[in-house]
């Protein structure tokens, strides 16, 4: 099966990305949204060929009180397609993230498998997170799941890291680095 890797950074000037799969392939797509400008972004993935697979990772890193809204669409239009989407946000100061994710499985897309996950790490006070996953399934014999997690750095993890000689600041920095390490490891420009 053909392998593909795509990296896109969404900005205020280029806020959307659409990928239409027309041949059977295994595609990895990394989307980065960062910065201090507030805007709405959109990612559309169309799986239009039998057996196509898309792994999509969206990373949201708002800064300096930015408000970022992201809408994703995973469109399963052919049978036996698979999509795996992760939206990961690191939200600090008084920034905000709004995420709306839609998984669509067409009537003819039997045997499709869709997964959607949103993970949010909140650093500090005044952050706002809103997450709204939706599923629109028009076929039977499919697998479709979603999940959302939002939280701050767990106190027991900070305690453990501090018992190993780290200061409070070092422990928090290490945890954040671990959370965003996935971003760095997936992006191959």
Give a verbal description of the structure.
This protein is mainly beta and 189 residues long. 15% of the residues lie in helices and 56% in strands. The protein has two domains: 2-152, no CATH class; 154-189. The chain has helices at 155-163, 168-186, and strands at 2-9, 16-21, 25-35, 39-47, 53-62, 67-76, 82-92, 96-105, 113-123, 128-137, 143-151. The strands form two sheets. It has a six-stranded parallel beta sheet, with helices on one face. Helix 1 (155-163) crosses helix 2. The chain starts with a strand and ends with a helix.
Q: Layout of SSEs?
A:
Elements: E1 2-9, E2 16-21, E3 25-35, E4 39-47, E5 53-62, E6 67-76, E7 82-92, E8 96-105, E9 113-123, E10 128-137, E11 143-151, H1 155-163, H2 168-186
Parallel strand pairs: 1-3, 2-4, 3-5, 4-6, 5-7, 6-8, 7-9, 8-10, 9-11
